[in-house]
Write a structure and sequence with these properties.
single chain, alpha/beta, Rossmann fold, 2 domains, five-stranded mixed sheet, four-stranded parallel sheet, 13 strands, 39% helix, elongated
Length: 342
């Protein structure tokens, strides 16, 4: 069997570990051949491939990003796309099936292709950890570690000047990175998309910290909305999927906090730093397990499914289940930590 592997959507620490594990497992256990599809779905649509053998994946587990490149190309909207054209390209290249590594958008494209008869498997990838069908996704742990280190550093400079520091982390629709990093760094308020809050409530937390002689630290998801805001804060246009480019809510909040409290406030937008660099050990392990499981699913002919972590085991779920809903932060998880704010 000859399998094509692609990485699509936003880059993420751990992608290379999936590729390595899939290739080594396929070669050693099943005598499969592999090709890498360059730049996500674009490589599949255009037939742009590279050979993936043992030497091609040597030592890449520890490397961030993806050796295959990535893009937000849609397999149907791109010129030359569509199931019929893709099937013809796969036949020309001798590709028997596809392993697509990506998040919600990538998996939605994979599901549509699978429904149209293309043999494709999914591997979940998102630093936001927002896919309900899997307990965790690789890249999330790395993002939390990076945000935690940034928060620790902001606390020292905040303490030196007795300023309120507002740290903005990624999280368009869900607040898992903010929640976990905020807990880790001992933030005095954690603001997430699932739970809007007023500026008065935020300012009260900040004042209570400052009045105790401490420098307040607020961690906020990029998708957080103040109570009464109709949509997320965005001033950077739209991305390739026609979604608003988020980023900058902290830059709006810091002056509002300073005006409401009289406490000097500064904002830091962590941005794409959270996506870069080497994956943590935990993410390397999970990504490796996903890569192994994906190849074994291909060997079993389980096309149209996605590998997922359930408890401590890797299982297979349908694309329909994988894309059923976003995994948001439950009210109970937020309430259990909220009493530590301020």
């Amino acid at each position: 069997m000859r399998i094509g592997i692609l990485t699509s959507g936003g880059d993420c620490p751990g992608l290379n570990a999936v590729i390595r594990a899939a290739v080594l497992t396929g070669i050693k256990e099943y005598d499969f051949e592999f090709v890498g599809l360059r730049d996500g779905w674009r490589g599949l649509v255009q037939g742009d491939v590279r050979t993936l053998n043992r030497s091609a994946v040597r030592g890449i587990s520890r490397v961030g990003g993806t050796i295959l490149g990535t893009s937000r190309t849609n397999p149907y909207d791109a010129e030359g796309g569509g199931a019929d054209n893709i099937a013809a390209t796969m036949k020309r290249l001798g590709i028997d099936g596809i392993i697509a590594i990506g998040g919600e958008g990538t998996l939605a494209g994979a599901k549509r292709l699978a429904d149209d008869g293309i043999p494709v498997l999914g591997v979940p990838k998102t630093i936001d950890n927002d896919l309900a069908a899997t307990d965790y996704t690789f890249g999330f742990d790395t993002a939390v570690e990076i945000a935690t280190e940034a928060g620790d550093r902001l606390r020292t400079t905040g303490d030196s000047h007795m300023r309120c520091m507002v740290l903005e982390v990624m999280g368009r629709h869900v607040g898992w990175i903010a929640l976990h990093s905020g807990i880790s760094v001992g933030a005095h308020a954690i603001l997430i998309p699932e739970h809007p809050m007023t500026i008065e409530e935020i300012s009260e937390y900040v004042r209570s910290v400052y009045d105790r002689g401490r420098a307040p630290l607020v961690v906020v998801s990029e998708g957080f909305k103040l109570a009464g805001m109709d949509e997320e804060y965005s001033r950077k246009g739209v991305d390739a999927s026609n979604r608003p480019r988020l980023g900058g809510i902290s830059e709006m909040l810091a002056p509002m906090i300073e005006e409401a409290t009289g406490i000097e406030s500064r904002s830091t937008v962590l941005g794409h730093i959270q996506r870069g660099g080497a994956p943590t050990g935990s993410d390397r392990v999970l990504a490796t397990r996903f890569g192994i499981a994906a190849v074994r699913a291909a060997a079993d002919g389980e096309w149209g499914s996605m590998v997922a972590l359930r408890g401590t085991e890797i299982e297979r779920v349908s694309f329909a289940e994988a894309l059923g809903e976003l995994k948001t932060v439950p009210q109970s998880r937020y309430e259990e930590i909220k009493h530590l704010f301020g």
